[in-house]
Structure to design on (306 residues):
């Protein structure tokens, strides 16, 4: 039976609430499922806000296997993925076989706990390694043998006779990452990239962005379409430090529902919400000059499209 440490890391597969599956999304899903069925791990790569993690979770739900989720971290070591010695196990034996003699034996040993990667490999779960390039390359070296030879090397101190684990045939790995020019992102090993199929994700098409915005906010479709047009026009202007994404459109739409605003160029609430959110999403923290430029540009775009 699996221990509580193992069960707490597992997510039962289920369709995502409010997930929008347009033709564009279906095409991506079908391609990814085809690569997985051919025996290859998938790597979704794209800028922040392009739906990498959501798509990874959606594909994982199609596999109908429990999901183990790992988020990349600069501080990770291999033991954070595979397992390590955490705490102690105390065994105490009291011998009263001879009535006048009390014999006590105590044995204290370190206790090994499998971490998420080992659990996924052992039981054939689906592993989603979100933003794996935020972990240092040396921590991810363990994946080379897993993906190629389907073997997981285990530390000797783990206990037992075997120093390796044969990966369950149902094990599937799905990776996501941001472009290498992003802050806090490491360049992954060529050997690891060669073992996976990378699917580059760009911004969704206009139909998909409008459908997502409507589904996530509850606004009428026509109002969601106008918000998306504003976001896309700002993106295509090339005037921003970071391109606005569908995430910005969702934030605008949700904020309007709370503030009782309307998608109209004459609405001061709508103009202010667009300026606040889009200036924030497309500029670095503290970049006041760029935010001022974006605010002025958003004001013109709102007037044009709404």
């Amino acid at each position: 039976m699996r221990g509580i440490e193992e069960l707490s890391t597992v997510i039962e597969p289920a369709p995502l609430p409010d997930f929008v599956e347009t033709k564009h999304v279906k095409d991506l899903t079908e391609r990814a499922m085809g690569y997985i069925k051919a025996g290859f791990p998938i790597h979704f790569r794209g800028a922040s806000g392009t739906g990498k993690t959501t798509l990874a979770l959606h594909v994982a739900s199609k596999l109908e296997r429990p999901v183990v989720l790992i988020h990349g971290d600069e501080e990770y070591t291999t033991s954070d993925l595979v397992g390590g010695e955490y705490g102690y196990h105390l065994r105490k034996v009291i011998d009263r076989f001879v009535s006048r003699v009390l014999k006590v034996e105590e044995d204290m040993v370190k206790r090994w706990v499998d971490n998420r990667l080992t659990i996924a490999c052992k039981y054939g779960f689906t592993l989603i390694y979100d933003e794996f390039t935020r972990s240092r390359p040396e921590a991810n070296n363990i994946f080379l043998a897993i993906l190629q030879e389907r073997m997981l090397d285990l530390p000797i101190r783990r206990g037992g006779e075997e120093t390796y684990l044969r990966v369950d045939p149902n094990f599937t790995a799905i990776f996501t990452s941001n472009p290498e020019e992003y802050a806090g992102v490491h360049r992954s090993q060529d050997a690891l990239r060669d073992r996976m199929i990378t699917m580059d994700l760009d911004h969704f098409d206009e139909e998909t962005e409008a459908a997502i915005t409507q589904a996530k906010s509850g606004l009428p479709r026509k109002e969601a379409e106008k918000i998306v047009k504003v976001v896309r026009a700002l993106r295509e202007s090339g005037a921003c430090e970071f391109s606005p994404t569908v995430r910005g459109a969702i934030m605008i739409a949700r904020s309007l529902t709370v503030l009782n605003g309307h998608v109209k160029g004459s609405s001061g609430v709508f103009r202010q919400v667009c300026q606040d959110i889009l200036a924030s999403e497309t500029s670095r923290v503290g970049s006041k000059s760029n935010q001022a430029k974006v605010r002025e540009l958003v004001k013109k775009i709102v007037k044009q499209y709404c």
Remarks:
- The mean pLDDT is 85.
- The first helix runs from residue 4 to 7.
- The radius of gyration is 25 Å.
- The longest strand covers residues 83-95.
